[in-house]
Design brief:
Layout: H1 6-12, E1 19-22, E2 26-30, E3 40-44, H2 56-77, E4 82-85, E5 101-105, H3 127-139
Antiparallel strand pairs: 1-2, 2-3, 3-5, 4-5
Helix pairs in contact: 2-3
The structure holds guanosine-5'-monophosphate (5GP).
Guanosine-5'-monophosphate (5GP) is lined by residues 6, 17, 29-33, 41, 87, 93-96.
Length: 140
């Protein structure tokens, strides 16, 4: 039997995550090691490594998920600007072999609220910060 991917386990709730939003075909949660505060991963429930392997329905729904996540992050971070990135295969830097968009809100330097900054030298994710942020994003 082929082992499920890490993200499938997260979608099923077998591994905990800081959920941001969910649709029928997609699931969004905070990245455990964020590049910036609010860094969210949007993944299809359909398990595939590359976007070309997704069904049409799943692929289209995934972009709807990205837009919904941007909407929620816009409210929280008061921005319209995002870095949206997808590493489509290991040679492109994909570490988890399950399609995922990175959605990262971008704000002008100096406008971030201190409670969202991460401990720079900490190897451990700050789960309390992630959980509090995810809870707010779910209400937006
Ligand atoms: P990739 O390099 O494959 O494009 O991105 C994988 C992302 O998944 C990384 O940004 C990494 O921090 C994130 N990640 C890896 N393991 C976990 C996990 O268990 N939980 C969460 N929320 N994110 C993870």
């Amino acid at each position: 039997m082929v082992e499920s991917t890490l993200f499938t386990k997260i979608i099923r709730g077998e591994i905990p995550s800081s959920k941001v939003a969910e649709g029928e075909e997609w699931y969004a949660f905070l990245d455990i090691n964020p590049h910036r505060p609010g860094h969210t991963l949007v993944v299809p429930k359909e398990e595939a490594q590359r976007i070309s392997e997704l069904s049409d329905e799943s692929r289209r729904a995934l972009l709807d998920g990205v837009i919904e996540v941007q909407r929620r992050l816009s409210v929280e971070f008061e921005t319209t600007d995002f870095t949206v990135n997808l590493n489509d295969g290991p040679l492109a830097g994909q570490e988890v072999p399950h399609v995922h968009f990175h959605v990262i809100p971008r704000v002008a330097e100096g406008t971030r609220r201190p409670m969202w900054t991460q401990k720079k030298d900490s190897a451990e994710p700050d789960f309390a910060i992630l959980a509090a942020l995810a809870e707010r994003l779910q209400t937006h």
